[in-house]
Amino acid sequence: MALPIIIDTDPGIDDAAAISLALCHPNFNVKMISTVNGNVDVEKTTMNALKLKSFFDSDVAVHKGAAKPLLNEINSASHVHGESGMDGYEFPDISSEELTSTHSVEAMYNILVNAEEPITLIALGPLTNIALLFNTYPESKTYIKEIILMGGSTGRGNVTPLAEFNIYCDPEAAHIVFNSGLPLTMIGLDLARQALFTHEFITSFKKMNQTSAMLYNIFQHYREDDFEIGLKLYDVFTILYLMDSKSYEVKEADVQIELQGSLTRGATVVNFKTDYPNCSVVTSTFNKNYEQVFLNMLSACK
Fold first, then answer.
1. What angle in degrees, to the nearest 10, is found between the helix axes of 210-219 and 13-24?
2. Which domain of life is it from (predicted)?
3. Hey, which CATH number is domain 3-300, 2.40.320.10, 3.90.245.10, 3.40.50.620, 3.40.50.720?
């Protein structure tokens, strides 16, 4: 039976890969896509989600969410993902009529309370929308199976020495989510940094189908890494992990978000020696099976 999921995202090149696999694979039933300010502003992340919806001829609703963090100043990663957030592929023009009018927090709540079974939340960007959901509708937690998020790090960051981008963008929201009491799996920088998608591997699938060609083209514009060596596709591991969790090392931990430190704000403070864990932390892979799982899922796309 397909796993019902809600994707909360800020597309984003690696977001696009995760969304593509989830929309196309029969193991997932995407109930909605919620957008948030993150890699680029929320208007652009929403347009990018709509472009992907159109590319796949999907009937999954896209709902626009938070345009800014709870308290933080707005940050951007357009220097990594390009001005549009998904540079490198010419998607057809999208009509604003494709966008639903309901705010994503309201839409998430409505879907959750009316679902036949608890739903898994896949968080690919800053956690603003999910924090707003919990603050506005605390009863919504009852209808959530678990949260799988890309964010954080057990060590070094990628925005500051200790803070990862998604958490750094809205530390207060992350604090709310990590202390929500829900089953939570953190897939942070540690995993993608040692599970590289090599240039040779990416080149091998570029002509597999229309989706692989689209992804290959936007991957070439991913400016965090040297494309000629390989890419760290952070967000896609949320989906790959759900497909093949046995191939990953997971440790229980208490994860708290630093909110005050002038040098450490947004850091994920990970304590593996706690008696009171609030999170499962995916630290590494046991093998390179993630490549084959990626290929298998990609082959299910158009």
1. 170
2. Bacteria
3. 3.90.245.10
Residue that has been written with the tokens 């959530």 in this structure: 144
For the sheet containing 248-257, what is the strand order? 62-64, 28-35, 3-9, 119-123, 144-150, 184-187, 279-285, 248-257, 268-271
pTM, to two decimals: 0.95
Contact status, residue 252 vs residue 277, Cβ threshold 8 Å: yes
Question: Could you state, in order of their start, the residue ranges of all structural domains in the chain?
Answer: 3-300
Integer Cα distance of 98 and 47 in angstroms? 10
Q: For residues 148 and 48, is the Cβ–Cβ distance under 8 A? A: no
* Tokens standing for residue 164: 């990862």
- Give the C-alpha separation, 78 to 216, whole Å: 19
